[in-house]
Amino acid sequence: MNDASSPIAFKGSTVTVILINLQTLHVETLAEAARTLFGENDFFEGEAGVLNLARMICPSPQLEPDWQGILSLFARHGLCVVGVCGATAEIEASARKAGLARFPNASVGNVRHAASAPASAPPPAQPELPPPEPPAPAPRRALLVDRPLRSGQRVHAHDRDLIVTAIVNPGAEIIADGDIHIYAPLRGRALAGASGDAQARIFATCFEAELIAIAGSYLTFANGVPPELNKGPAQATLEDPNGKPRLIPLKLD
Asked: For position 112, what pLDDT does the model report?
């Protein structure tokens, strides 16, 4: 019970965090991947993140993970890691020693169980009616960007889709927790499903991207976009959560 006069009060709530899918806890390997994804930029804006370790290739490392190195690595890109999920018992115990919280697995939601009445309690005279369902919250409108994005600029659509109607130049980054729609040349980086939504998609009418990512799985184009898709309409999906995004030609006629 919270005391109104106390300077500390506890209240349950639901907050949005960024889910980071990791296949290793090796700091050097993660640092190289982070440089590929984010360059040297302060990519995030102080958002909280949770490390999803359910896809670890080697879930039981012989050495203690370098948690401080991992936290510092993501902090350099503006992401504050607060906990882990999907970890083995050994890694979870190690993470707790490092001050990280334990989160439920990303694929498992919270289930509320109704309390059973005592066996000796008489049945109620009339059945109790369930409380009325609260009204569904109004959907958030997609974030619309109608200006060109230059190198070094970044836009993040939190908890919604992103629609861009102007060019995304090389070095610019667009991020959405939902889908991304670009009705103009995409020449920079596009990251959809940034909070872990593997069903998110990226649509572009003129695909010339440097990098795309869906739910943390990324695909780079250091050697250029495949000729059959270059400068054409395309969409990206993540058919296999453990694989790379797949590019599909988009028919507009």
From this structure: 34
